[in-house]
Amino acid sequence: MTVAILGVGVMGEALLSGLVQAGRQVSELLVTDRRPDRAAELTERYGVEVVTNATAVKRADTVVLVVKPQDMGSLLDEVADAARPGQLFVSLAAGITTSFIESRLPDGVAVVRVMPNTPALVDEGMAAISAGSHCDEAHLREAEELIRSTGKVLRVPEKQQDAVTAISGSGPAYVFYVVEAMIEAGVHMGLPRSTATELVVQTLVGSAKLLRDTGEHPTVLRERVTSPGGTTAAALRLLEEGRVRADFLAAMEAARDRSRALSSGEPV
Ligand SMILES: NC(=O)C1=CN([C@@H]2O[C@H](COP(=O)(O)OP(=O)(O)OC[C@H]3O[C@@H](n4cnc5c(N)ncnc54)[C@H](OP(=O)(O)O)[C@@H]3O)[C@@H](O)[C@H]2O)C=CC1
Ligand SMILES: O=C(O)[C@@H]1CCC=N1
């Protein structure tokens, strides 16, 4: 069972490293990238064979597309002649629909759409997958198994993928943004940057574990931190006055709308 990864940037490498760590034979993996220096780096790091896009599609049972949404049309045009019915194509691109991919490939090629995220790099990814129209249970299981090597996988109807992209696809960036702001606040209050960073990062990891391990509602966990008339209440009051919650809603709606626009090929 040969898997080809087309486009090995940030997400493609997260998948490649997850597959290698999960015990996939490197001899059953192929990768492509358009920069020769990047290709050489991947061979050196993983011992994986780098080939052209057309060769990868000819030789693979499963083809994983991990180029930017804007590069997807030209990549599909380049490989369409090499694709054959019965093959599975898995796309990790934001906004690109299964019907867009199906329309550019021969009839009978199965397509699965995935929205992963970068914690996949440390095997803590969250991905949602959706079936295209020529896809059966075996194809979905195959895609799930691939992606599970980088973390959790959930099945969702394709119409939910733009919202998923706004939440878990882009989500790590919102978290890092809050982390940056908290570290800066610590520095403003006179803490050494290294101290502020350690405090914030461990607070984040601990809070995430508390959420996941207890399964308690975030409101309950927040209330447990908020002593009447105390420090947390003072901070949360300011966040409410600043309409931070409403801003989060508007921001994620903007991300969802951008995902929808990418599907219609709207330029940057
Ligand atoms: N980064 C993220 O957090 C997430 C990304 N995604 C999706 O993953 C996809 C990839 O994103 P990301 O990894 O961040 O992007 P990158 O730019 O890091 O990776 C894309 C890679 O594909 C290469 N490439 C482009 N065109 C071709 C081609 N025709 N043939 C072979 N290789 C090609 C690029 O080369 P070059 O460097 O020369 O351009 C680059 O190395 C996107 O569609 C994105 O929507 C999904 C969820 C999260
Ligand atoms: O910003 C983006 O378009 C990609 C998709 C989700 C996360 N990064």
UniProtKB/TrEMBL annotation:
NADP(+) binds at residues 6-11. Residues 158-261 form the Pyrroline-5-carboxylate reductase dimerisation domain. Keywords: Amino-acid biosynthesis, Cytoplasm, NADP, Oxidoreductase, Proline biosynthesis. SUPFAM superfamilies: 6-phosphogluconate dehydrogenase C-terminal domain-like, NAD(P)-binding Rossmann-fold domains. Transmembrane segments: none annotated. Its EC number is 1.5.1.2. Pathway: Amino-acid biosynthesis; L-proline biosynthesis; L-proline from L-glutamate 5-semialdehyde: step 1/1. Residues 2-95 form the Pyrroline-5-carboxylate reductase catalytic N-terminal domain. Catalyzes the reduction of 1-pyrroline-5-carboxylate (PCA) to L-proline. This is Pyrroline-5-carboxylate reductase. It comes from Jiangella asiatica. The lineage of its organism: Bacteria, Bacillati, Actinomycetota, Actinomycetes, Jiangellales.
